[in-house]
Amino acid sequence: MEIFLFIKTEDTFQWLAPYGYLIVSLGFVFFLFRVFENWYANLKNRPLYRQFFVYRTLNKEQVLLLEQDFSFYNDLSTKHRKQFQHRVVTFISEKKFIGRQKLEVSGTMKLLIAATACMLSFGRKNYKYDLIDYILVYPDEFYSAANKTNHKGEFNPREKALVLSWKDFEKGYQITNDNFNLGIHEFMHAMQLEARQSRDVDSIRFQKQFQNILKQLTNQELKDTLDKTRYFRKYAFTNQYEFMAVLAEYFIESPAEFKTHFPKLYEYTKKLLNFTFAGY
Q1: Is residue 135 a contact partner of residue 108, using CB atoms and an 8 Å limit?
Q2: Which of 63, 68, 94, 215 has a CA-to-CA distance to 77 between 20 and 30 Å?
Q3: What angle (nearest 5°) sits at the alpha carbon of residue 56, between those of residues 54 and 62?
């Protein structure tokens, strides 16, 4: 009986051996691919690929709403529109939207918030904002216990929550050329923290270009131009993180003017976000 069991066990190992070799080989290939992907991202300042699979789509009413109210979507190619739709649907499905002060978060509100988030992260492979689980929406400005004052928006990493005033968010996306966009501003804060905590290809590129931007700010000629033109609003100079959030607003809403005034800052921001579409 013992001999029989030994033979059966040996036969089993012989039968499984090819699958073991296959698993090890696939693991090695995956490792080499990751090495190549990181090398490519470092060399080209962009991910090897942004989107592999696209299978989720918005319904006709949602697409019509984007076409009417979200100008960024209209500037995308057909291929990129499909990718954008997939990402928006994924974002909505993975985040929990919660209305505050009796506000009911409608499907339209979810769509426009998700579209803003996916617009800012559209050049990234990792577009989901992993540090955000909850989107809290107030009808207007809200009291923040963090610093005991009213806010229009904030990102709370401890609670994994992004908090928005709907009134101010709506104004931000409706007026597309005033360089005030609450959604872009707050999602950029979430992206910044993610880049500090992660080592994926998007975060590495973000940190590299962020440092390039900070180095530019030490250039006396640029500092003199900033003082002279007063191009960026005063709040941008609160600290380096607010500067980056404001920079993103200007980059998204008035790219041509931004590029004319500060071409190097524009190029570093473009590389940071990997914006190679929609005319940027």
Answers
A1: no
A2: 94
A3: 130
Residue 170's Cβ-count burial label (10 Å; 0-12, 13-18, 19+) is: middle
DSSP assignment letter at 235 = G
Sequence-ordered list of residues with C-beta below 8 angstroms from that of 152, at least 6 positions apart, any chain: 141, 164, 165, 168, 182
Q: Average pLDDT, stretch 117-137?
A: 96
Q: What is the dihedral of CA 20, 26, 31, 35, to 10 degrees?
A: 160
Among 243, 238, 280, residue whose Cα is nearest residue 259: 280
Torsion of CA 109, 114, 115, 116, to 10 degrees: 90
Whole-structure pTM value: 0.86
In this structure, how many other beta carbons lie within 10 angstroms of the beta carbon of residue 38?
Answer: 16
Q: Which residue has the tokens 């559209």?
A: 122
The residue-averaged pLDDT of 165-175 equals: 93
Please tell me the predicted confidence (pLDDT) of residue 227.
Answer: 86
